[in-house]
Amino acid sequence: MIRTQIYLPEDVHTSLQKLANKKGTTLSKLIREGAETVLKKHYGKKTPQQKALHFLANYPDELRIKLTKSAVELVREQRN
Amino acid sequence: MKLVIDSSVFISHMGTNDEFTPTSQLFFKILFENKEKVVIPTLVIAETLTVLKQQQHLNLQIIFKNFQDFDAIPLDMGLLEKLRGILLKSTVTLKASDLVIALTAKVADAVLISWDKRMLTETSICPILTPKQYIVKVKSN
């Protein structure tokens, strides 16, 4: 786990602490649960990377472009 | 298997007429199915976006947003320090950009995936495969 520092509004902190006491858990655990809920809401069940790979695996045809040269040549032009 | 994907693979995948387009499409489908871990050098993002712009791609924003969801490794002083170490130790024939991308794969302990013959023949600091070789390897396991 990565240690990080966040600021919470006082009333949110108080309420979370009370809830943690009531549930017999910790403030940190509740905050982690909240963070996971936000991520699930945004990405669904997929992680950001799975979402990105899903996009590429189902890349829309309307976004495809006709290349003027081979992909390798186009990249090589950037590097030479 | 952790992978670093070279710009040539993204460009061929996003094109309609590259000789490698069909295999690149299959490659990304297999990556998604296998939930492979992908790491992208920021240089690859810059190159891919530049080439797509020059090739008249109409929606770079959606491509950029998609790249943001991958773990990106920047060319920073830490990577340059490792680059210095390699340059001092051995003879290098790769171009600077090729070397940075290969070095990113080495640092990430990943396999580099590229269609570029030059990279495939001259890269010695990290394992390297074509998407086709990756597909064969995955299917044989």
Describe the structure.
The complex is a heterodimer of chains A (80) and B (141). Chain A has 80 residues and is mainly alpha-helical. Chain A contains four helices and no strands. Chain B has 141 residues and is α/β, with parallel strands linked by helices. Chain B has one domain (2-136): 5'-nuclease (Rossmann fold, 3-Layer(aba) Sandwich), CATH 3.40.50.1010. Chain B is 60% helix and 12% strand. In chain B, α1 (7-14) packs parallel to α3 and α2 crosses α8. Chain B has a five-stranded parallel β-sheet. Chains A and B meet through α3 and α4 of A and α1, α2, α3 and α4 of B.
Main sheet properties of chain B:
5 strands, parallel
Q: Strand order of the main beta sheet of chain B, please?
A: 3-2-1-4-5
Overall mean pLDDT score of chain B? Answer: 93
Number of strands of chain A: 0
What is the CATH superfamily label of chain B? Answer: 5'-nuclease
Which geometry of chain A do the CA atoms define? elongated
Class from helix and strand fractions of chain A: mainly alpha
Helical content class of chain B: 55-70%
Rg of chain B over CA atoms, rounded to whole Å, is: 15 Å
Question: Any idea of the CATH class of chain B?
Answer: Alpha Beta
Number of alpha- plus pi-helical segments of chain B: 8
User: What portion of the residues of chain B fall into strands of 2 or more residues?
Assistant: 5-15%
Shape of chain B: globular
Please name the two chains that share the biggest interface, counting residues whose Cβ lies under 8 Å from a Cβ on the partner chain.
Answer: A-B, 26 and 48 residues
CATH topology of chain B: Rossmann fold
Architecture of chain B, according to CATH? 3-Layer(aba) Sandwich
Unreliable stretches of chain A (pLDDT < 50, length at least 5) are: none
Order of helices and strands of chain A: HHHH
Q: Any idea how many domains of chain B? A: 1
What is the tally of helical segments of chain A? 4
Keywords:
heterodimer; A: 80 residues; mainly alpha; 4 helices; 62% helix; elongated; B: 141 residues; alpha/beta; Rossmann fold; five-stranded parallel β-sheet; 8 helices; 5 strands; 60% helix; globular
